[in-house]
Amino acid sequence: MVASEPTLPEHTGVVEVQRTTRTLILRARRRADQLPVVLKSVAPGCNDPTAGRRLSDEFSILRDLNFDGVVRAHRLLATPQGPVLEMEDLGQTTLQDQTTPLPIDRILEVGVALTTALVKVHAAGVLHLDVSPTNIAIDPATGRVTLLDFSAGRRVEGRAARPAADGALGGTLGYWAPEQTGRLAVSVDRRTDLFSVGAVLYRLLVGVAPGPTDDMLRAVHAALALVPPAPSLLRAEVPEAISQIMMKLLEKVADDRYRGAHGVLHDLLRSRAALAANGTVSVFALGEQDVPEVFTPSRRLYGRDAPLAALQSWLVDAATSASHAAIAIVGPSGVGKSALVAEAARRFSIRGAQVASGQADHARGRPLAVLLEALTAAIRARLGLPEATLAQIRARARAAVSEAGPAVLDIVPGLQALAGELAPVADLAPAEALNRTAAAEKVRFAAARNAYAAGRFDEARTALGQCLEACPADQAAQVLRARCERFLREGPPDGWDGAYRLTVK
């Protein structure tokens, strides 16, 4: 369903403030009491089936965050066009409007207000995941600082928030943490918001964000690999202690940042008091009161240098060669296989590449399950990209699967989020159906062939049956399945070495 302009009979003086591909922001007054409000709805023309649910989720989060420092949600309106979120109107001034560096004492005031709000947000079990200048309102008269836009917000389950169902990890170019780029096998957590706080304060200190804000590839590379210059090097009057606080917030590895907003708040309050009393801030030990809200084990990997080096070497070979390769890591549960892959992915992503992985213990005998898990992870990472970049990827995905139509979506269901709805597959003659299998069933058939060659005839027969469900005229799958059934009854012939004599595929 494609969204259209919302019908708002309860409001007057409706004025458009902002329109993106996903959301429409309006300012208006309620007819009943003339209260100024901000209205947020799904953008007209948006065909994202999750957009309405996102508004409902945002309302649910804001309703639970009913305290100073967070924009207040009044109600969620039901209109024929979908839900509309009604919020308090804080005016149009945000930190994005601040284009020049602020005085040091003013920056500390903003930092204290921002981290005070985050202390409460995190204590409520919520991550913002998009702390950026556009999402921080400031009242020029009172100095009140308010967090806006919790559309990327996530409730925390345990120590970290896993990627959302649509793969979005939140964040704004130049202000996002490395784990939000989609290039690391690392979950977002409270420290993700702290990185973005550091990025916002960095901009207020020196006038520019710590990373590119206008180019996707450069922004990813900067988030993963480039350390911005310390603020004290770019602005002489920035005390070294404050510069160190910013750089600790901007650490690439979450374990090296502050562990909780309480620790940041303590150091900012100490800096503010010292600046007011002495006109400067002497260097002090950071994080003395940095106690995390929850226990979070370190993500560092110890004692795995040799296998990590080997894995990185294999990944480099696979990425730089013309051939394809799959790497299997085996071992008992709990020995650190996933941690090894996550660390290799983190290091490899610095080179601008992405690693997708799947776990065999999730497969439970399903053909291609490991490969499909890896593909789904890669798809989710792309769904978190800016809309302009995502539109190009969607076009390529549609072009790649259009010939096979919905048949290929049966194999990789998550691909529909990229390709969208596809036209039904037309009935073809047997010869033409064989051509279609090259696009829609090639991966499934290859897995079946490999299982056959390895002597796993029952697994191969199951996968081939799925191929034939999608394309009953697939002669190659018919022949190979018949061979598997015969071998299951009689066993393979003497001297059989896994070879097969099929040339149709």
What would a concise description of this structure say?
This protein is of the alpha+beta class and 505 residues long.
What is the radius of gyration computed over CA atoms, rounded to a whole number of angstroms?
Answer: 27 Å
The overall pLDDT, averaged over residues, is: 82
Task: Sum up the overall morphology in one term.
Answer: globular
> Helical stretch count?
17
**Strands side by side in the biggest sheet:** 1-2-3-5-4
Query: Poorly predicted ranges (pLDDT <50, ≥5 residues)?
Result: 162-167, 501-505
Q: What distance lies between the first and last C-alpha atoms, to the nearest angstrom? A: 38 Å
CATH level-two architecture of the largest domain? Orthogonal Bundle
Whole-number total of structural domains: 4
Instruction: Give the class from helix and strand content and strand pairing.
Output: alpha+beta
- Number of E-state strands: 9
- Going by CATH, what is the homologous superfamily of the largest domain? Transferase(Phosphotransferase) domain 1
What does this structure look like?
This protein has four domains: 78 residues, 2-Layer Sandwich (Phosphorylase Kinase, domain 1), CATH 3.30.200.20; 184 residues, Transferase(Phosphotransferase), domain 1; 94 residues, no CATH class; 61 residues. It is built from 17 helices and nine strands. The radius of gyration is 27 Å and the shape is globular. The C terminus is likely disordered.
